[in-house]
Amino acid sequence: MSDYGVVAGAGTVRFQRVLPGPIERVWEYLTVPEKRGKWLASGPMELRVGGRVELQFLHASLSPRHPEPTPERYKQFENGCSLAGIVTACEPPRLLSYTWGGDSEVTFELSPRGRDVMFVLTHRRLDRKHLANVASGWHTHLGILEDTLHEVEVRPFWSTHTRMEAEYTQRFGVE
């Protein structure tokens, strides 16, 4: 299994990872704001269909041991940004879906795999021109989640994201 996301249909990118369990631990990193804030974004989440999601991103806080300047094209997000969504599916601790700031939707599927957890992330209804950017973001965030769950030093966010965006642009054949 590759760490790279794949195009899984028109406007859809999918990632698979095997993460250290148990499943309840991984679920907490999806749903508990303080834990989610270590790899993605903090913020409240109502764990019910129709519940509100508010993701509060602060990328500089994700890899504090590797301070890096924010790339120029992302400077407007340097001090954080928020994204709102609505929960569309919630079946603890196996399935969570929510809208992603408007038209797209992200789904997390968890299943036990011995002592580990099969983690599948699918982001749907993306504009093709944003596929490489979204894939590089998820690739970077998931890498930080893996590092966090393995209790190792987390990789730097911005340099990883920049490298991954170039790779996904080439892989997906988008500009």
From TrEMBL:
UniProt-listed SUPFAM superfamilies: Bet v1-like
Domain Activator of Hsp90 ATPase homologue 1/2-like C-terminal residues, every copy: 22-149
Organism domain of life: Bacteria
Family that this chain belongs to: Belongs to the AHA1 family.
Name listed for the protein in its UniProt record: SRPBCC family protein
